[in-house]
Amino acid sequence: MFKSKNQFQVIFLLTVLFFSSCRQTNLEKYFKGFEGTIIIYDQKHDHTTIHNEQRASTRFTPFSTHKIPHSLIALETGVVSNVDEFIQWDAERYPREDWWPSQWEGKHNLRSAIKYSVVPLYRELARKIGEQEIKRYLDLFDYGNADNSSGVDNYWLNGSLQISAQEQITFLKKFYNKQLKVSPKTIDAVKEILIQESTENYTISYKTGAGTVNREKGVALGWVVGYVERQDNVYFFALNIEGSSFSEVLQPRIDIMNNILREMDITC
Question: What is the mean pLDDT of the chain?
Fold first, then answer.
């Protein structure tokens, strides 16, 4: 009996060590020379995996990842009635620029605007919502430093608003679990338009963000934040990387995220 109990304990410890080692996989190889961080939170097991913990707690501009709370605020305040309502921005205030993607042309609603990350549309929404109302919701959401003082229509675009990867995870958990002070209907609507891929095994939802943070030094930042839903669990993730240009970070941020999620058997 004693021997059997010892054998059971050994097997149990080996199993724990095995799964622990899987979760502590060295993720450095996936960043391929990029300075960056990723946090993955396993909600069912209350387990966090972090690469580059110091950077994970460092605040950066959110760029277009802010379109998640931005969409929530637009819907909750009634500035937009639903995700399919067409929204027109002021073309004189926000005239077309040479760098604009072709997908920004034509009519857009929240569904398409978040998919193609249509910046002028969200700048228009911010003006309609107003600085004080935006500030109120940023405080309610406890979103990063909640500072929108640098300009009502650009505070999230390398402006005063700053957030860390850790804080992105905290916000996403509240968002997903309907712990934000907005209606469940509003949260469900934004969840729907965040979905990127749905398979038999998982559904992945996320928002990207990118831009130049220091033009003189040639520093650009790329974000991906979101979550993976499986039958019995949810995995939240937040990743950011630095590169020498806007174009340099666009695809690698997605590739790094996908490779790590596959490595951890989250998207399989």
Answer: 92
